[in-house]
Amino acid sequence: MNRVRVSHTSAVSAVILVSLLVGACPAPAQTDGLIASPEPDWPQWRGPRRDGVSDEKGLLSEWPQDGPERLWTIDGLGKGWSSPIIVHNRLYITGDVGEDLVISAFALDGTPVWRTTNGAYWKNPYPGGRACCAFSEGRLYNMNAHGRVACLDAASGQELWAVDVLERFEGKNITWAMSECLLVDGGNVIVTPGGKQALMAALDKRTGETVWTTPPLEDDVVSHSSPILLRYAGHRQIVNCSAVHGFGVDADTGELLWTVPVRNRYGTNVSTPVYNSGRVFFMTPYDSLGRQYRLAANGAGVDATLTWDTFIDAVTGCAVLVDGILYAAGYAKPKWWFGFDWDTGQTKYEMKDFTTGAAIYADGRLYILDEQGNVGLIRPAAHRLEIVGRFSLTSERVRDAWAHPVLLDGRLYLRYHDMLSCYDVRQP
Predict the structure, then answer these.
(1) Which residue of 86, 209, 219, 257 pairs with 302 in a disulfide if CB–CB is 3.0 to 4.6 A?
(2) Domain range for residue 198?
(3) What CATH number does the domain containing 251 carry?
(4) How many CA atoms lie within 13 A of 47 on its CB side?
(5) Burial call 160-177: b when 16+ CB within 10 Å, e when fewer
(6) Residue 206: what pLDDT?
(7) C-alpha 179: how far from chain center
């Protein structure tokens, strides 16, 4: 029998050759679309992709007459509209208590873990905590109503650093206060100060130092919306709104790539942009239009061209895109729910049973919390939005139940000001 002997040197050379050949092969193309947080669970505003869509299955297809089973309620959060985030069996939420913005941590059975503050409360029109937290690598990030960005140790609540972004970037606050839910992208915390020194900025998430800035836009200031992170044409973008512009910036450099007009009579843009298949949707309030724009890479940058607009507006909620249908509620007129074809803008659904509010989507159903505190489980059917469950979150007569629902591990979390309730929505 002939035997082949391979020397150590030859073996090493072969390994190197294989490695070089593998390295020479192009890496698989990264898919365009929203970029999810690398953290588990519900680590930021509106979920892993910031789109209000959950991938969970095995949930109740309809609710009992009085709604799903309530597991617990927490009182004493403080006034506000921020939603919880949930990571590693801990829930984090904010609220105005006394003269402070308070950040609280709870176990998932509602047991308190720690409580700390992030500067002063908002005492002007519509007092209450606004922005929710974001989680990354054992740290929490939150911006208060005055533009104070704080980094906390998630285990203890200890403040590690803080930055006043309005002061640093020469910005000014707005009528109903800064409300941006911070985006963590890799080693950066993204903020939109809208000041004389920066439209958008990236802060080092370990130190708070400035990494990059996007130059300001003339006659523009910050608004209330929160950004999304996406990949388009092989490049990462951050998309958000100011008071006057919808815009996209290069996520790595802060370079301004494109802008579109989103002006309204109060300069109040609240809703997070929606992205899918190279198109971005902005929803502006107060009798303004919802507008979809198509992105097109032009070599030197990106063009954004209007594809359609619609009458829909919003000031408290965001749109949810599922299976080619964009679900959203109007605010000024009409003040109820619609479903629009993503490709054409054509109205596919109309539902007047709930007023304006916020929604998320999971397992074939919309979960709606309207501003009057009514909760709905909605099934999109062939020609209508079918109500398959409903109850009231509060017995009070209210018009400011503005917090967005959160759904994780078969539990639905709903907030009304000082109170957070947890409901079991799993199939038995």
Answers:
(1) 257
(2) 29-424
(3) 2.130.10.10
(4) 22
(5) ebebebbebbebeebebb
(6) 98
(7) 12
132-142 pLDDT tens trace: 999 999 999 99
- Give domain status of residue 204, yes or no: yes
**Paired tokens of 167:** 């002061």
pLDDT for res 29: 56
Residue 7 belongs to some domain of the structure: no
Band of pLDDT at residue 280, cut at 50, 70 and 90:
very high
Q: Is residue 35 situated within a structural domain?
A: yes
Tell me how many domains the chain contains: 1
Distance CA 369, CA 386 (A): 16
Within 10 A of 352 (CB to CB), how many other CB atoms are there? 9
Q: What is the 3-state secondary structure (H, E, C) of the chain?
A: CCCCCCCHHHHHHHHHHHHHHHHHCCCCCCCCEECCCCCCCECCCCCCCCCCECCCCCECCCCCCCCCEEEEEECCCCEECCCCEEECCEEEEEEEECCEEEEEEEECCCCEEEEEEEEECCCCCCCCECCCCEEECCEEEEECCCCEEEEEECCCCCEEEEEEHHHHCCCCCCCCCCCCCCEEECCEEEECCCCCCCCEEEEECCCCCEEEEECCCCCCCCCCCCCEEEEECCEEEEEEECCCEEEEEECCCCCEEEEEECCCCCCCCCCCCEEECCEEEEECCCCCCEEEEEEEECCCCEEEEEEEEECCCCCCCCCEEECCEEEEECCCCCCCEEEEECCCCCEEEEECCCCCEEEEEECCEEEEEECCCEEEEEEECCCCEEEEEEEECCCCCCCCCCCCCEEECCEEEEEECCEEEEEECECC
Which pTM value belongs to this model?
Answer: 0.93
Plot region of 194 (φ>0 → left; ψ -120 to 50 → alpha; else → beta): left
CA 425/CA 106 separation, integer angstroms: 20
Q: Is residue 376 part of a domain?
A: yes
Q: What is the structure's pLDDT at 332? A: 85
